[in-house]
Amino acid sequence: MVTRPRLFQFDGAVSREPVNPNNGFYMQDILSVSQFNRENLAYLFDVAEEMRELVRRVGACDLLKGYVMACVFYEPSTRTSSSFIAAMERLGGAVIPITQGVQFSSVAKGESLPDTIKTLEQYSDVIVLRHPEVGAAKIAADVAEVPVINAGDGIGEHPTQALLDLFTIQEELGRIDGLHIAMVGDLRFGRTVHSLTKLLTMYDVRLSFVSPEILRLPLDLMNEVRAKGIPVYETYDVADVIEDVDVLYVTRVQKERFTDLNAYEQVKNYYVITPELMKRAKERMIVMHPLPRVGEIDPAVDRDPRAAYFRQVANGLYIRMALLAAVLGKA
Amino acid sequence: MVTRPRLFQFDGAVSREPVNPNNGFYMQDILSVSQFNRENLAYLFDVAEEMRELVRRVGACDLLKGYVMACVFYEPSTRTSSSFIAAMERLGGAVIPITQGVQFSSVAKGESLPDTIKTLEQYSDVIVLRHPEVGAAKIAADVAEVPVINAGDGIGEHPTQALLDLFTIQEELGRIDGLHIAMVGDLRFGRTVHSLTKLLTMYDVRLSFVSPEILRLPLDLMNEVRAKGIPVYETYDVADVIEDVDVLYVTRVQKERFTDLNAYEQVKNYYVITPELMKRAKERMIVMHPLPRVGEIDPAVDRDPRAAYFRQVANGLYIRMALLAAVLGKA
Amino acid sequence: MVTRPRLFQFDGAVSREPVNPNNGFYMQDILSVSQFNRENLAYLFDVAEEMRELVRRVGACDLLKGYVMACVFYEPSTRTSSSFIAAMERLGGAVIPITQGVQFSSVAKGESLPDTIKTLEQYSDVIVLRHPEVGAAKIAADVAEVPVINAGDGIGEHPTQALLDLFTIQEELGRIDGLHIAMVGDLRFGRTVHSLTKLLTMYDVRLSFVSPEILRLPLDLMNEVRAKGIPVYETYDVADVIEDVDVLYVTRVQKERFTDLNAYEQVKNYYVITPELMKRAKERMIVMHPLPRVGEIDPAVDRDPRAAYFRQVANGLYIRMALLAAVLGKA
Question: Which biological process annotations from GO are given for this protein (chains A, B, C) (predicted)?
């Protein structure tokens, strides 16, 4: 065949050379909080701060122009998928949104997760995966050549949530070392509590765990925390800690984790953070919540400047922008 | 921590400074037709004309580059969501599409509308909301710091539909004052008829209302029209007005509004606009319809140049582009 | 009204003039494999090769900036819709994703396919349509002024799949003429087999058809192949052809095509391609599959360099990029 002149010269293209391939994240999968240390967290939070500056000043940039993110949600999570989609878009990248959660046509026809992943990576440069089964993200990462980011695998891990939680503490209070952090609510099934607790054991903190008896932190995790020498206090009553804490991390009691609805009804409203309770808290402290909430925090608390949970949502955007840029070698 | 050089300099960024913050729309919510007057409608239609020129000449621009629109549809509406998505994309902006309508994961977990909105606004610069309940858009607007555009709240308002309807009359006939406009079909439940009628009372028009007895225009709206001094005529038969009208605005009898299906069956095909009927209409007049139609207009009428309903759809794109640009201060 | 200066000068706009309106595809609908010949296939494959180069080097470009693709799937197909979405995005274009397949609100209200298409074309520059009914794409193309690309109409056609299949053979083996291609599996209902077979009859090939008796190639298609003078061989056993074939095109027995589930159970695992079987195949040959697979190919075969089915998926991206650029006159 006669060679003809190329019809286009890649107008508008941005180089795909990594600008920082030695950032410790380049082409890595993000599967678990256990893969982070204080050093790479400091790097990531530094990039996330830049992302916040970027969003506030100009909204978006072309850093990931030319990159496509497949957003694959086997179960719906509006908050998480929206956050990843906005993150990719604000970096100039494109998104394949597969967020229905209901009926993946290929899956309905019997396709395996590895085959679905190996298919989608042909179209994309990074895969964000939400799946109801523990270990699904690892399976996907093992077969994919592109980076896989775990956006939650059942009762397993949800590392980007833990990262944004820790980043929020850093941003709101200027440090992590030296703080007293209380986890409140469902500490037994609460995936976010477990992941954040693991990250916090790398810092010089004190931890309090406030829950009803049947929702106490699992023993193995408690032992892990103690083994690191972290001072720990357990109580049934948030009033026991409210005056001293720097961070009150409140969680929803998740109805879907209970098989016995009576047990759920007994504990669902065990804790309610109210303006009255907040009067007893320090002037400089924050209330966090991974959201959605269903009653654990009185909406009247929203007006309190210490209510950090919606700023926490925004931090999720910056952290995910930082992660996407980092795994693609652009930060 | 040692300060390191910024990793990127906001490549491809566009200024977020409003170019026209005094346009009367900047950072405003768009909730109801009652917030418009002849002056700001003239401004909006002027911008919409530019948008049409833009789409025809170059398809898209970078006016809203760096901005993200959350498109949140609690009930599905393919036409409206597609129109808003295309509008944002043709302005260079990005979209978070939440258009499933079925199962919002957070909502399923019990999250309130205010919390969902306060979450999504952390990711986005403008929120387009469709909700089955009257007043939902107002609730959202009250809590959101970003502008909220009502894309329909149940039997309440659907202001962008009314705007595109009025814009279509202006574009097709060059004016609104002096026209005779007939509304045909379901005038009782038809949200679009009510909203357009309200807008038209600001102009010097004559209005005819053509419907079966059980679908007549509600008395309070009729009184509101009469109080403005608008000449009104009511009839059961479209033949009574066809020879005189400048605009024939036809609507579908919406089965979903009837509890008595027998009543629906009796009126559903009460009116059919046919080529024969169109022979009696003026040479310069238009037939409009908010679509979808199910039989009120014979498809043979589509070839008639006076059939304006698909051009009306395109006008929806231009109006929504104009609104998005206006509320973000870019028009 | 006083003319005011235009508020923006179409920043970031790219010319919409076709650069190559005589490419044979410009503004054409892509409905069936029957509209292709060796000449326009050679052109298309040449462009697709450029697209691969583009994706590998820079990921994306601005060739279709300013263009919007409506991706309208009346039935879900994650693979196909993702491929088209990524294709449009990597060309710099925008997408209206209507991929739920479940509940089109307008359709639920009784809207006809022509009306839906005439609506969506007001927002978009090209429509990609998946529909469960044979002939739907033709109906859409007849009413649309923008190009319509058939992404599968029931048991009818799925031309882009056949194009990517043929392109894969060309790319993997450097030619099509002179090859021996065996189709294996469900040759009766397999839409992809039928379409690829039709394309192959334009080349100088030998074809083998391997299937259980009840899933043999339909007689009319077999006669069409023979009428072109193509040497044909039919067998029940893949072992009969494995040593000689250049291409082994394996398909899934589609459970959803069977009304008698007993009949399905009898044939579903009739063929399994294993590493043992592959030992008998030539060194330079390829195994293809349109995917998803459910057991016809042992995953252990994936490590065999002759396993081409995931590279075949990537070729789907390049072919669809080429088609989109071609119908919009940009290639």
Answer: 'de novo' pyrimidine nucleobase biosynthetic process; 'de novo' UMP biosynthetic process; amino acid metabolic process
B296-322 confidence digits (pLDDT tens)? 999 999 999 999 999 999 999 999 999
The pLDDT assigned to B17 comes to 83
- Evaluate whether C82 touches A98 at the Cβ level (below 8 Å): yes
Average pLDDT of the residues in A86-110? 80
Single-letter residue type at C291: L
Q: How far apart are the first and last CA of chain A?
A: 43
Residue C26 has pLDDT above 60, yes or no: yes
What residues of chain C lie within 8 A of the CB of A105, using their CB? 75-79, 101
Given a contact cutoff of 8 angstroms between Cβ atoms, the answer to whether B66 and A58 are in contact is yes
Classify domain B160-314 at the CATH topology level: Rossmann fold (3.40.50)
The single residue of B65, B79, B118, B293 carrying the catalytic annotation is B79
* B240: exposed, middle or buried (Cβ count in 10 Å: 0-12, 13-18, 19+): middle
- Picking from A183, C271, C146, A89, the residue whose alpha carbon sits closest to that of residue B93 is A89
Cα distance from N-terminal residue to C-terminal residue, chain B: 43
> Can you say how many angstroms the Cα of residue A3 is from the centroid of all Cα atoms in its chain?
50
Cα distances (Å, whole numbers) of residue A204 to A36, A165, A183, A225, B267? 16, 17, 16, 12, 74
Instruction: Report the alpha-carbon distance of residue A286 to residue A280 in Å, rounded.
Output: 13
What mean pLDDT do residues C289-295 have? 92
Q: Give yes or no for C201 touching A (CB within 8 A).
A: no
Strands, E assignment, A162-219? 180-184, 206-210
Residue C98: enclosing H or E segment and its boundaries? strand C94-98
User: 3.30.70.100, 3.40.50.720, 3.10.560.10, 3.40.50.1370: which CATH number matches A33-157+315-327?
Assistant: 3.40.50.1370
Q: Check if A18 contacts B (Cβ < 8 Å).
A: no
By the CB < 8 Å criterion, does A76 face chain C? Answer: no
What is the Cα B256 distance to its own chain's centre?
20
When mean pLDDT is compared across B52-56, C125-129, C264-268, the lowest value belongs to C264-268
What is the pLDDT at residue A261?
Answer: 81
A314 confidence band (pLDDT: 50, 70, 90): very high
Estimate to the nearest angstrom the gap between the alpha carbon of C137 and the chain centroid: 14
CATH number of C160-310: 3.40.50.1370
Q: Is there a contact between C170 and C226 (Cβ–Cβ < 8 Å)?
A: no
Please calculate the CA angle C118-C120-C125 and round it to the nearest 5 degrees.
100
| CA–CA–CA angle A138, A140, A144 (5° rounding) | 120
Contact (Cβ atoms closer than 8 angstroms) between residue C135 and residue C153: yes
Element (H, E) at C144: none
Flag if A106 and C78 touch (Cβ within 8 Å). yes
- Give the residues across from B210 on adjacent strands: B184, B235
From residue B178, alpha-carbon distances to A266, B101, B121, B245, C237 in Å are 68, 42, 43, 11, 80
- pLDDT at position B14 over 70: no
Q: Which of B99-108, C126-135, C234-243 has the weakest average pLDDT? A: B99-108
Cα separation of A205 and A244, whole Å?
13
Portion of chain B with pLDDT greater than 90, in percent? 77
Give A-chain residues touching B112 at CB under 8 angstroms. 299
Residues 6+ apart with CB under 8 A from B137: B29, B31, B129, B131, B148, B150, B153, B156, B157
Q: Given the DSSP bridges, would you call strands B247-250 and B286-288 parallel, antiparallel or unpaired?
A: parallel
Interface of A with C in 125-154 (CB under 8 A): 125
Mean of the pLDDT values across residues C178-192? 94
For the cut 60, the answer to whether the pLDDT of residue C6 exceeds it is: no
Backbone φ and ψ for C180, nearest 5 degrees, come out as -110, 115
Q: Do domains A33-157+315-327 and A160-314 have the same CATH topology?
A: yes
